[in-house]
Design brief:
- With about 575 residues, this protein is an alpha/beta fold.
- The chain has 20 helices and 24 strands.
- The protein has three domains: about 140 residues, Nucleotidyltransferase, domain 5, CATH 3.30.420; about 180 residues, Nucleotidyltransferase, domain 5 (2-Layer Sandwich); about 210 residues, DHBP synthase (Alpha-Beta Complex).
- A hairpin with a 6-residue loop joins strand 11 and strand 12.
- The longest helix is centred in the middle third of the chain and has 26 residues.
């Protein structure tokens, strides 16, 4: 059975494909359109991309699992805005409606009574018997955590973001193969929607905008900037959010996102950019951890899974992992809305067969893009007259170049799922000089205060970083910060933030042999156990996907060389004199 997962939101649209209960393909829309955080358009290129990856067509799809967000207007049974929508279509623009809004406005919670499924099948160009299925936003966030952990009981799964299906906080407790909803019920059971003025996700988003950055895109910059300031208004902001210990709901005297932004503006106008970033970061950590603690007081748990955009905040995830008594944590690597297609498919499977039927296992890697081969890259490079060396021992030669402070990038097979580069589309650099941050930021047009991340071999992880059972799994996917052991602060200064933390990736050879072997050889040469891993993209562009995009970065002098399993590629042959 092939199940297509789709999410079309205001941002971070994506598609995925399951074969039975195994994920076989994933693609975020931005990787194809090259428009950062692409959303709103239902005619997704990523649908055909995941089908291409799997080698099937739309007629092979047995079920389509969708979010209740942007659905084409022509697929609704009620066409009361027919002429407006038709006019948009004539002008070549999509006319979509948000399904969750239609459901609450019409007080109709059976999607099939609002959606003309035959029209939707026709729009998707799938078979007439393809099943259509819709999923609650936060439930979809939760299910990726369930699928890729093996925790049998005493597991708490939490989701928090800037909003989905009129909820901002959701929590489920796993026991006896049943998920108990502790907080954040679905639309039909709401007495009232959760208060958007009580959303710490919207608060963080507002501060991002107030400090001159783009909301729903640059929140990570606020996290990095926070280390340079003091949380002088942290308690003032935290006090906006009131956690109810009885049912773990969060409320506020502030009743709308606009009122919330106005209150935050009053505070930010009086503070430096650094202190405001530190204050919202403090409040986010405090609200997030205190909320989780109230849930744990109701249902004691040893294991915590986290998803939703707020949990892209790696410092918050570190604080959650430090809660006493927590044995393991897991953050779904595609924790923002691009991960929803995966949860949509899992929700469909559970609706058919129950949770016990899921083949649950720990997630090993996130390589779900199109399987480009080394030959694809080499052929494209030769066609464009780049210098290509296939006669070298790739891993050791790459290590020598990095030792001499050349900046490389690895293009290895299938693109990663989620916002982190994890060895398939990664820029590599020597972390021994802090000055690499300035030069690389200049080449990539990035912000100067953002820290670079390191990767480390599995055999060295505990030696370099404060790794333990509670944070080990997130460190596989770069979704958490940890403290860097003090003796390594001056060894790898390029990847140690001013607060003494780093966001490491623990590399395992079975996941990506080339990536692992390059660092192994680099360590032999230098005694340095880490390399810089930063995403292979210029600022404000999505991570690269294709060989052609990788070669453009080389041509534009963003990097000095490209490496794949078969060759090292440079702009000209003179570059290879570094190996002599």
């Amino acid at each position: 059975m092939f199940i297509l997962g789709i999410h079309v939101g205001r941002h971070d649209s994506a598609a995925c494909l399951f074969k039975d209960d195994e994920l076989v393909a994933f693609c975020k829309e931005e990787r194809l359109t090259r428009e950062k955080n692409c959303g709103k358009k239902f005619k997704l290129l990523s649908i055909d991309e995941v089908l291409r990856i799997a080698g099937i067509t739309r007629k092979d799809i047995d079920a389509a699992a969708l979010s209740r967000y942007h659905i084409p207007a022509v697929c609704y049974r009620r066409r009361d805005r027919f002429f407006v929508e038709k006019f948009r279509e004539i002008r070549g623009k999509e006319s979509n409606r948000k399904l969750f809004r239609e459901m609450t406005t019409q007080h109709e919670y059976d999607e099939k009574k609002l959606i003309n499924e035959d029209a939707l099948r026709k729009f998707l160009n799938v078979r007439n018997d393809t099943e259509i299925f819709f999923t609650n936003h936060h439930y979809a966030h939760i299910l990726g955590l369930l699928k890729w952990t093996t925790w049998p009981d005493e597991a708490l799964f939490v989701s928090c973001d800037g909003g989905g299906d009129y909820a901002y906080y959701t929590a489920y407790y796993l026991k006896d193969n049943k998920l108990e909803c502790l907080c954040g019920a679905d639309l039909p059971t709401f007495d009232k929607p959760q208060n958007e003025g009580a959303s710490i996700g919207l608060a963080y988003c507002s501060i991002t905008e107030l400090l001159g950055f783009r909301p729903n895109r640059h929140e990570g910059k606020i996290t990095g900037l926070a280390a340079f300031g003091k949380p002088v208004a942290g308690e003032q902001i935290r006090a906006f959010f009131k956690i109810n210990a009885n049912d773990s709901t969060i409320d506020s005297d502030i009743k709308s996102r606009w009122e919330l932004q106005a209150e935050l503006k009053k505070i930010s106008d009086k503070l430096s950019r650094e202190d405001m970033a530190a204050s919202i970061q403090y409040a986010t950590e405090k609200v997030g951890v205190d909320w989780v603690k109230t849930l744990l007081a109701r249902r004691p748990a040893k294991y915590i899974g986290m998803s939703g955009g707020v949990f892209s905040n790696v410092l918050l995830n570190q604080r959650v992992s430090e809660i006493p008594g927590i044995k393991e944590t897991f953050v779904f690597p595609a924790m923002t809305d691009d991960g929803l297609p995966v949860g949509n498919c899992l929700a469909y499977l559970i609706s058919k067969n129950g949770i016990a039927s899921l083949n649950r296992s720990y997630l090993k890697d996130v390589y779900y893009g199109y399987p480009y081969t080394p030959q694809n890259l080499v052929d494209a490079a030769r066609k464009q007259n780049f210098a290509v060396r296939e006669d070298l021992k790739i891993d050791s030669s790459c290590a020598i170049l990095l030792q001499k402070h050349a900046v490389g990038a690895i293009f290895a097979g299938r693109m990663e799922m989620g916002p982190r580069a994890l060895g398939a589309r990664t820029i590599l650099a020597n972390p021994s000089r802090r000055g690499i941050n300035d030069s690389l930021n200049q080449r990539l047009e990035r912000t100067e205060f953002m820290p670079f991340a390191p990767y480390v071999l599995d055999v060295d992880a505990e030696e370099v970083f404060d790794i333990n059972d509670a944070n080990r799994i997130p460190c596989r996917f770069m979704t958490i910060t940890v403290n860097v052991r003090e003796k390594y602060h001056d060894v790898i200064p390029a990847v140690v933030h001013v607060d003494g933390t780093a966001r490491p990736q623990i590399a395992y050879r079975e996941d990506n042999p080339l990536y692992y072997d390059i660092l192994s050889e680099f360590k032999k040469l230098t005694k340095i156990p880490c390399l810089v891993n930063t995403s292979f993209n210029v600022h404000e562009e999505p991570i690269i996907n294709t060989p052609e995009e990788a070669l453009k970065a080389l041509k534009d002098n963003r990097i000095d060389f490209l490496v794949c399993e078969k060759a090292i590629i440079a702009r000209n042959s003179e570059f290879f004199a570094l190996l002599e």
